[in-house]
User: Fold these one by one.
Assistant:
Number 1:
Amino acid sequence: MRCRNRSLAVCSVILTLTACGSSAPPPIPQTLVLPAEYSTRCPPVIRQANSSADAAAIALEGMYKQYGLCAGRLIDLIDYINNPVEKP
């Protein structure tokens, strides 16, 4: 009885090992290389020159421009990641 169980265990191990050896390896995912324009950081925050209302308005206008630039970069980056197409 003992020999029969041992041979059955050895047979199952051999069949399992040969099945793993003949299976195809898993596919390797490709890494996405970002263009340099998408890996740049946004510029630092614009500070107010003094406490006047004109300086606040100028700083606010600069912040709106920076926000538009950084938001546009983010949208371009998301589009590139979703549809990686080489640009000419």
Number 2:
Amino acid sequence: MADDLGWGWGVETSNQLTANARIAEGPGVFYGISVITDGTNAVTVNIYDSVDGAVTKKLIPTWVVTTSASDRVQKWSEFPGIRYHVGIYVVISSSGTHKYTAKYKPK
């Protein structure tokens, strides 16, 4: 079954996460990330081609997610996607609360 955004067969969505995490292991294609903020505090996101947070290759530049009470959800999308070789590891920080999910397709 195709995913809800129409990206086709095999695209996966990570669990909803709140901390640094390994999203995928092994090669594949990264399609994007959605971040939900607390409506007050900005969130800084770094996404690496890594499985353990060791700084190797960034998949996207550092992204500072701005927020407001009426605009809490922000998305970074890449189409046709960014290839990763080792895995996907997300490093996320904020002085407030946040949640995120990532879209990717393992090889």
Number 3:
Amino acid sequence: MDASTDRARIADIAYRTALTVPGVVRLESAPGGAFTTTGPTGEPLEGVSCAAEAGGGYSVELRLVTELVPLRPLAERIIARTRAAAKAVDLGDSLGEIELVFADIQVGEPG
């Protein structure tokens, strides 16, 4: 696979994995379209930024909206699950730094 495909796959893994973690409501882009990456089939992945690292591999930033939960344990679960998911498809060595931005905390019922 070429590097751009690996980048898109890593972004997609991080996006989809984060959404499976209890406490994550959604990922969202920032104003002006920041935190939006193109996925492997050309779809926009809102709330994800994925960039090449100087030493090789790709760093990922996720911009999250969460429920009112303890954020440090939530972050640890998201990072651990994302690393495991990347490793499961032989992209573990290509996944670099994972950073999380907590854009909002949703309190109560949505809507």
